[in-house]
Design brief:
two-stranded antiparallel sheet, alpha/beta, 8-stranded parallel beta barrel
């Protein structure tokens, strides 16, 4: 049995298979963060290709929090309608649709960089260290973004706490050298993330999944370890988070040994420690590897990033089922 093609129920949402399109920036929004035709075609194509869960790219909760000048935004109500169109197109073709809410922090585009501490990312300007009052304002930005996510009709909301962006900057001791209640111990360093979770939950429907993407390790001495991430994951579980997306790295440049499934072990450890559903990612391209991960319970979903950029019809080709293929493509279905 190809377990990778079995449905998965997560709260009120049934995800039709275990294939995930992870957030990947397209750098194709308008200068004001609005959806363009590119997004409708790009995400709609993967829905036609029957990807189970499509998670939209990092979408900025503040204008100053964009990764680039052409990132999607969700910092004002005028951006809701374009996002709703993406949701409607993808859902019409059978995909469950999520969005990743993000703030780039000290790695943002532009000249208004903020971070837990005034420590620059190499090649970037020194960021402004957020005060307690400013932290509360940023948390409120996430709450408002969650409201807009709900109004746009998304099925899944994901918080971006990985890859060296603002939440990860608070989590990692390499970028957080605060001496107040947001710095020092791991308990303090995860406070910002947990406050965001609580704020988002006031706006996000309780019957829809809430996900967090984490960088499991920093790959550097003095940085986050897998043990730390297990503790963070347990804290998120206690707060009611439903799904963890486990990646790695990004706080600083580091040497990483790459290979097929190189990050799967991180998702496996987190799943075993918490029992929460997890998404595994990391150069997964083959049906055989995806099947091994799911059938052995190492993770509940597999994310195919670059592979889905190369081939939006990966699922259709991996499972040549006439019932799955769009009627318009019947003549192309592989036959025994």
């Amino acid at each position: 049995m190809l377990f990778v093609f079995t449905p998965f129920e997560l709260k009120s949402i049934t995800i039709p298979n275990r294939i995930v399109m992870p957030p990947m920036c397209m750098y194709s929004a308008t200068e004001e963060g609005q959806v363009t035709d590119w997004h409708l075609i790009h995400y709609g194509s993967r829905a036609v290709g029957k990807v189970g869960l499509i998670i939209l790219e990092a979408t900025a909760v503040e204008k100053r929090g964009r990764l680039s000048g052409r990132d999607l935004g969700i910092w004002e109500d005028s951006q809701i309608e374009g996002l709703r169109r993406v949701v409607e197109i993808c859902r019409a073709h059978g995909s469950v649709v999520g969005i990743q809410l993000a703030h780039a922090g000290r790695k943002a585009w532009g000249d208004e960089l903020v971070a837990p501490s005034a420590i620059a990312f190499p090649g970037f300007a020194v960021p402004h260290a957020l005060s307690r009052a400013e932290i509360a304002e940023v948390v409120e930005s996430w709450r408002q973004a969650a409201r807009r996510t709900r109004e746009a009709g998304f099925d899944v909301l994901q918080l971006h706490a990985a890859h060296g962006y603002l939440i990860h900057e608070f989590l990692s001791p390499l970028s957080n050298q605060r001496t107040d209640e947001y710095g020092g111990s791991l308990e303090n360093r995860m406070r910002f993330l947990l406050e965001i979770v609580e704020a988002v939950q006031t706006e996000w429907p309780a019957d829809k999944p809430l996900s967090v993407r984490l960088s499991a390790v920093d790959y550097l001495e003095g940085g986050l370890t897998l043990k730390d991430t297990v503790e963070i994951s347990k804290a998120l579980q206690a707060k009611g988070v439903d799904l963890l997306d486990i990646s790695s790295g990004g706080i600083l440049s580091a040497r990483i040994e790459l290979g097929p499934g190189y990050q799967v072990r991180f998702a496996e450890v987190v799943k075993q420690a918490t029992g929460l559903p997890t998404i595994a990612v990391g150069l997964i391209t083959s049906v055989e590897l995806a099947q091994e991960i799911i059938s052995n319970g190492r993770a509940d979903f597999v994310a195919l990033g670059r592979e889905l950029l190369r081939n939006p019809h990966w699922v259709l080709q991996a499972k040549p089922d006439p019932e799955l293929w769009p009627k318009q493509y019947e003549r192309a279905i592989p036959r025994p």
